[in-house]
Amino acid sequence: MKFLSALNMSGGYGGADIIHDCDITVEKGEIAVVVGPNGAGKSTAMKAVFGMLDLHQGTVVLDGEDITGLAPQQRVAIGMGFVPQNHNVFVSLTVQENLEMGAYICDYDIGENLEQVFDLFPILKEKRDQPAGELSGGQRQQVAVGRALMTKPKLLMLDEPTAGVSPIVMDELFDRILEIARTGIAILMVEQNARQALEIADHGFVLVQGCNRFTDTGQALLADPEVRRSFLGG
Amino acid sequence: MTDVLNALVLITNFVIVPATAYGAQLALGALGVTLIFGILRFANFAHGELMAFGAMVTILCTWLLQSMGVGIAPLPTALLALPFGILAAIAMALVTDRAVYRFYRVKRAAPIILAIVSVGVMFVMAGLIRFIIGPNDQSFADGARFLIRAGEFKQMTGLNEGLAIKQSQLLTVVIAVVVVVALFWFLQKTRSGKAMRAYSDNEDLALLSGIDPARVVMITWIIAATLATIAGVLYGLDKTFKPFIYMQLLLPVFAAAIVGGVGQPVGAILGGFVIAFSEVTITYAYKKFITYLAPESWAPEGLVQLLSTDYKFAVSFIILVAVLLIRPTGIIRGKVI
To answer: Fewer CB within 10 Å: C terminus or N terminus of chain B?
Structure first.
């Protein structure tokens, strides 16, 4: 059993199921990427893992503990961090306040956590007193990731962290994500930029219409002619 | 030269001093409306009644204290009774939230539904207030009335015009400044205050961060009820307590919140003063003022009053409509209702 094992998940937003019998797993210190065409249920699968969706089938196990019944806030408390795709910063709060709010549930001194995030994203230290809404897209994403890291999660989940940023910023964000993974955190992310994401991924999950179509290491998926033809544009 | 001074004293006495006190009262009321809108995301029409309720309990406690001979002269006894009024208003707000608003919040009802619900709450609360204290004027101000009397001022300066400053006016401004500073300190510096701003900014992300919505909502009601009671008592001390007047106050208070930018505390304060100064300057009769400054032959025949004081609420209305048409976000960019 892997560090995170979300197995046989089926569910949706109340209407018809969006994901069917979907498996997603990730090991500590590894990066798992969920890719697939638009509407494949990638974000939905992420939300299912984070408890933002009613599952009528399947289990989510983190570090050997069954957390299927926990609310998202409770999952934050046991070591999961989530960066939503949109509206993922408090625009009217300063960068530092954003990070402080990320650690809202921590009842200890968060100075060390703050320093770690500032070490990872030095630009945030420079802009700590600026409202997050005034930052560029890439810097905002850094705030969003930093906010989720403030609780020192064991599993970090990112929903399309590079949506809407330039290719250069994207490369830099991926570098940072690799750096985070090297500290032993498990990373699960959904990505539109499938090729670049699979290049840094240890494992890839290709979803189509809410089902697992291909599951393999990132390199193997990149090398698979069928995956290349169908999802990576040749 | 004396004429210019006389004119200045005149305008200070009849416009600047009363409008400043009135503006501070509106600002305190509008702060509550804007906080409720920012956090609970609906226009709380019952806010005027909450002001009246807090003021009513304060008045009842004032009478009790007066009958026991307890006082803090030269300050009004009402200040001593104020904490009880605040506690009662907080209890009222929390009970209402638990009994009424929470039901709709849990269902994630649309803001317009909550606004209509608050109209219902307003009528219930209005009935309760009239049931307890009656619909009439109540006087509860005691202590020294004036800091400077018009007559004394004339003697002191030898001018024709007198300047009177009521104790309640100075109290209003001092208390408003203290309360606003405390509120901003709370919102900017404390963990709970930051959590409130975070919740107002982005509810979903606040939930993801583990911010407890029930706690945020409770703190918001506590602050709003405190501000409402203080505003209500200061208004009552400065003018008079009459339940119907407080219902009417709702319009300028809302206008202040919207003009300033809904959900923006700084905007609420600005808006309070904009509305108060507009109301007072537009309904003031400038005849005497002009007579002092202009040559005698220019003396106007009429009162030179733009609008009768009976129409002062129309001023709030006009400003409100103008702002909604031209800059719906308000002076400081807030949310659009």
So the answer is: N
